[in-house]
Amino acid sequence: MDFNLPEELQMLKTNLRRFVDEELIPIERETNDGTDFLPGMQKKLEEKAKGLGLWLFDVPEEYGGLGLGSLSKTVMWEELGRTIALPSRQASIFGPRVSPILYSINDELKDKYLYPVVRGEKTSCFMQTEPDAGGDPGGMRTTAVRDGDHYVINGNKRFITAAGSADFAQVVAATDRTKGSRGGITVFLVDMDTPGIKLVRQQELMVGDRPWEISLENVRIPVSQRVGEEGDGMKAAQSWLTEGRLRHGARAIGVIERCLQLAASYAKQRKTFGALLSERQSVQNMLVDMYQTMHQLRLMVYDASWRHDQGEDVRWLSYMCKYFGDEMSFRAADRCMQIHGGLGLTTDLPIERFWRDQRSFIITEGPTEILKMALARQVLREYGG
Ligand SMILES: Cc1cc2nc3c(=O)[nH]c(=O)nc-3n(C[C@H](O)[C@H](O)[C@H](O)COP(=O)(O)OP(=O)(O)OC[C@H]3O[C@@H](n4cnc5c(N)ncnc54)[C@H](O)[C@@H]3O)c2cc1C
User: Fold this and answer.
1) φ and ψ at 287, to 5 degrees?
2) Whether pTM exceeds 0.85
């Protein structure tokens, strides 16, 4: 069994590592406010990034992108995870981010939504979470009721990232509340200027993100705006969610590595009570713990990504990558902060931002407990006899 990355991926990793070290880390506190790039920054970084030849790396070749496989993307996210130069959600310097849901729509909808997104002319947001249903979409109250050749959508959404600037939304709504997430949920593409959609307020968070509360009141859309068949909503979201969970795990490897570098180098300089921190076993234990979890996580995420590329169903593995990665990277940021003392709390260093971002990831796109609950069902099926 060969655990080494293939040569082309080692090259990709080396190039990105150099790019992150030389172009991103030196200016990481000047590029974004946590949510968005500061004026002019996205264009500037895109120009620099173009030299890497990774434009539209995430978009399949048939739509003009590079169509990189899962393991290649993992290597990219791992390296990019080492810096806070990019806003933690949504933003990219390698071309527009395209929701995979848009690859599954029909040609007419692709002309209207997918291609304009790929060309950078339109952006979208994803509207699933609502006041009474977050981690459990089966409890969704937003309904889409068929009325001839239209649907009428009513409900409230919250925590919707980038809704204020989006041209259209992927709205998740219940088409049959008795079925819940087993066939009762459908995704619709809805233009944000459709009458009845209201941006209620932007939410203030401990992280830089400012997601939106939205109300949908008698929003009337043609049946042709439905994604797939009625009730297929959770199926549509599945590939998107699996990719997202692998990305969480991959980014987390980079976060742990950077925290380890910061903590180890500081521990070798800082003396207290006549000895370097690096000579204290309690500090050494923290460093070794980070090192070990980084290795465990890397093996786990590389394995899941490789299997994903072979066409295997990696849903369960992706759950572990997500919660283990987010939990362990938060712990690494926390320990790195502890080793730095008061300095760890300052915005002179990236530690506090890693700490806040990684804490938020333990909740978003699947809280740890919900992923473990789903994984437990699989474990009991497989090992419970
Ligand atoms: C910055 C940010 C950006 C976001 N962007 C978007 C977006 O663009 N689009 C979108 O649709 N949503 C978005 N969200 C919403 C996010 O995905 C939800 O917050 C998340 O899914 C959790 O839902 P909830 O907050 O309703 O928590 P709930 O589902 O109410 O869960 C609350 C807590 O209860 C516990 N819990 C829940 N179920 C169980 C269980 N079965 N067993 C044990 N414990 C359990 C967990 O600890 C969980 O954290 C965003 C959130 C944030 C903070």
Assistant:
1) -65, -45
2) yes
